[in-house]
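Tip: read the tokens left to right.
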């Protein structure tokens, strides 16, 4: 599975003019399932995402993870960070762009598998993190964000490494 994560001051997803998910400071994660991915690879990616240190500590170094900046009740930590997580499905992250000028989506999971794995990812995220919002799987979404830094990272797990 793949997640493109961005540290944000705020982010929101709208579908047909209505906001379906929004967060304040935290992470926006564009999430994609690839062929062969399993629940185990989704779980491994989630663990990496929640523990990835992209937030600054008191010395200004990226030493704090999303899990470190939010209290278990969802309230901000003492430094004002809120720790929201906005998950948005995006199959185009699996595009094969190695040849030609049109991407191939052969590496992406089928829509049914992609939905199943994204839903699993969301369920597990909600069980492990107090502030989780989402887009709508398969919908045409408009994603807005204020990138903080900018700080953007590509995280990936492989089925054989799960």
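Filled-in amino acids:
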């Amino acid at each position: 599975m793949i997640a493109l994560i961005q540290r944000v001051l705020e982010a929101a997803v709208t579908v047909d003019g209505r906001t379906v998910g929004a967060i304040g400071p935290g992470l926006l994660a564009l999430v994609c399932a690839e062929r062969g991915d399993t629940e185990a690879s989704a779980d491994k990616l989630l663990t990496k995402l929640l523990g990835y240190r992209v937030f600054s500590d008191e010395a200004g170094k990226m030493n704090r993870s999303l899990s470190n900046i939010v209290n278990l009740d969802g309230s901000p930590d003492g430094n004002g960070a809120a720790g929201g997580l906005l998950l948005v499905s995006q199959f185009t992250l699996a595009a094969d762009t190695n040849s030609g000028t049109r991407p191939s989506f052969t590496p992406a999971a089928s829509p049914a598998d992609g939905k199943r794995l994204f839903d699993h990812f969301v369920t597990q995220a909600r069980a492990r993190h107090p502030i989780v919002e989402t887009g709508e799987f398969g919908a045409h979404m408009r994603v807005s964000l204020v990138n903080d830094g900018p700080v953007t990272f590509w995280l990936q797990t492989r089925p054989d490494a799960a």
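The chain has a mean pLDDT of 91. Residues 4 and 154 are 5 Å apart (CA to CA).
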